[in-house]
Amino acid sequence: MLFFGCKRQTNDAGISKTLVQSDFISYAEKYSITEIGEYYQLDVLNPWQKAGGSGFTYILGSNEENLPDSLKELKFIKTPVESVILMSTTFISIIDTLEELHSIKGISGSKYVFNPKLKDDIESGLIKDVGFDHSLNYELIIEMNPDVLFLYGVEAGITQTINKLEDLGITVVICADYLENNPLGRAEWLKFFSLFYEKFEIASNIFNGISHRYDSIRKIASTIIESPLVFVGLPWKDTWYIAGGNSFASQFIEDAGGEYVWKNIETTEAEPFDLESVYAGIMDADIWINAGIADDLNSILQHDERFENIKAFERTQVFNNNRRLNEYGGNDYWESGAIKPDVILSDLLRIFMGQSDSLFYYKRLQ
Question: Is the pLDDT of residue 66 over 50?
């Protein structure tokens, strides 16, 4: 059951009325919320690339006994949840923002966690690593018996994992936050998670603050007279995956006052290009950001020595979003950055205005 635009709401008296989706969500496009009496219906929409209209529906509430007949065939999750397993470190910052870190009992890829409090709990054994993909520790997950396991999927094969977990009695919720193409849309998944903790009003107030700060920075960026030409990424072997002009990366660059080199590629997804085609397009770019795992300019040249002829490289205007790493390479940009698009935008604005001395997520490569 997928819902768009206006919603039909049924109150406790059984009377239907229209509920406007914007009452709940302003930017996110990968989930919807419908209020039905004392319950919330969450619909996750197209939760992996090329999902073709696939979706998942969850009913949240504190009392399953009062469920209307129309909802009894849908997956019910009792709230507030008290124990969760996370299959992505991105979810950590959201739950931390809700002040519910204590609910995290397991995580995938624990060594890549940046959050100091969570790292302490992992080292002390309070939080277990449940593995990932084909190495998922099903026995440990069963033993932990979480209220909810939150995961994400890159392709349709994730449904096999979901089905196996559910056959084992584990409640699974799939998330699609990483597929949002608007930075505020990704941050607005805070509201999605908040419903599991019965903290929607708190989440809404926090998000309104994030949105306000983001818009304030965007207004300052709109006053930039000459927008710098910007490109993103680093090639993998002889292929460069280019984020489209309707992508998350493109939106950030535009909102920060830059002009994205590939803004005319009308797609939201990353498309593969041969290195020769990309090289010609980035020669005169002013700024290079998000340069893979590169930690200095020499490591970029190891990919291709011709990069030293690019204008941005010559002028040392290469910035990477890896200023905050843990000892295993876990990057806080991908962890807390999901809930701090305003901080990322502030970094980018400073970079584009030539004021890059005090950045939070970014650093200038030397």
Answer: yes
The span from the CA of 79 to the CA of 147, in Å, is 9
Contact 147, 81 (CB under 8 A): yes
Structure confidence at residue 98 (pLDDT):
98
- Separation of alpha carbons 315 and 234, rounded Å: 18
SS3 10: strand
Rg of the chain in Å (alpha carbons): 22
Of 152, 178, 210, the residue that ends a domain is 210
Q: How many angstroms separate the CA atoms of 102 and 262, rounded?
A: 43
CA distance 318 to 359: 14
Global model pTM greater than 0.90:
yes
Task: Work out the number of other CB atoms within 10 angstroms of the CB of residue 65.
Answer: 5
> 123: helix, coil or strand?
helix
pLDDT confidence of residue 22: 56
Question: For residues 57 and 69, is the Cβ–Cβ distance under 8 A?
Answer: no
In the chain, the number of structural domains is 2
Rounded to a whole number of angstroms, the distance between the first and last alpha carbons of the chain is: 52
Rounded average pLDDT over 296-306: 93
Q: Which domain holds residue 29?
A: 6-210
- Window from 13-27, 69-83, 196-210, 271-285 with minimum mean pLDDT: 13-27
- Bridge partners (DSSP) listed for residue 270: 243
Residue 78 has pLDDT above 60, yes or no: yes
Do residue 201 and residue 234 come from a single domain?
no
**Angstrom distance (rounded) from CA 231 to CA 287:** 7
Same domain, 146 and 274: no
